[in-house]
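Show me any protein, fold above all:
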Amino acid sequence: MKSALETLYGSYMFPMLWAEKHIDIGTNVFDKEWDLLIILDACRVDALKEVSPEFNFLDDINSIWSVGSTSKEWYANTFQGNRPEIGETALVSGNGWVEPLFEGQPNWSYWTMTRHSIWHNSSVINNALDRPLPSKEDFGEYVTVYEDRGGDCGTVALPDDVTNAAIKTGRETNTERMVVHYMQPHAPYLHERDGNKLPKMHNSPFESLRNGSTSREEVWEAYLNNLRLVLHSVENLLANIDADEVVISSDHGELFGECGLYSHIAACPHPALKRVPWVTTSAEDTHQMEPELSTEDINVDTKTRLRDLGYL
């Protein structure tokens, strides 16, 4: 039954992904003005509006239509081609999809929503969706952020990990633009972590929501708290980096049971997924912080990073 449903969705999804390869469906962030773009993974517009009174730098919450409803889709559609801006852009990312996209040969037939379908690992799909993407050497600066904490946290980049890397990159490089990609408020929800341990619902919130063991209100509140966690770290970044035009946005939103769907899936046009925040502010480096970066040599494969985020 599951494979049949995934095969059915794939018959819609893959033509849509092919169309996105050729047609801009949404706003490419490179067509907007900004010096520093802060991406909060899976952040909904209504969620940011709900917590905005708690943060002085969140003033006027606008929105745009994203070019993707998943991170892999957003990266592929944002950075495809030979945009000249890429060479003048520093990318600091805690998202696990950057490595398979920019450091190797992407598997365009692998998508979480269709991994049990007949489309999975199809060479026809892979060839049809293949496109030119930059390599990590094409960026003005390219930094991936993760730690291996084990337990429930695994290799998920904590907000302060990303903030420290972004501060260091901002002070030591001289690119025209910088993209800083935080993994929160995307699950797992880290705001109540005890070392590397998390409450069960915080580690797999949508499984708890599907099986009815947790209410939507409980999951939503945990999601908001995870958003608050990352916004406090963003506040530190804004006080320790120079940027006249800062934008806070997201790659995609999140679904909490709307239309019977949960989390996020590729090529889904639902407004809660495709409509993302667009908030403008500014940043000034007051040197309140000195970045604390781990010097430990961490060797974690990409599959482990994606598994820790629930993609495998």
Notes: Residues 62 and 304 are 35 Å apart (CA to CA).
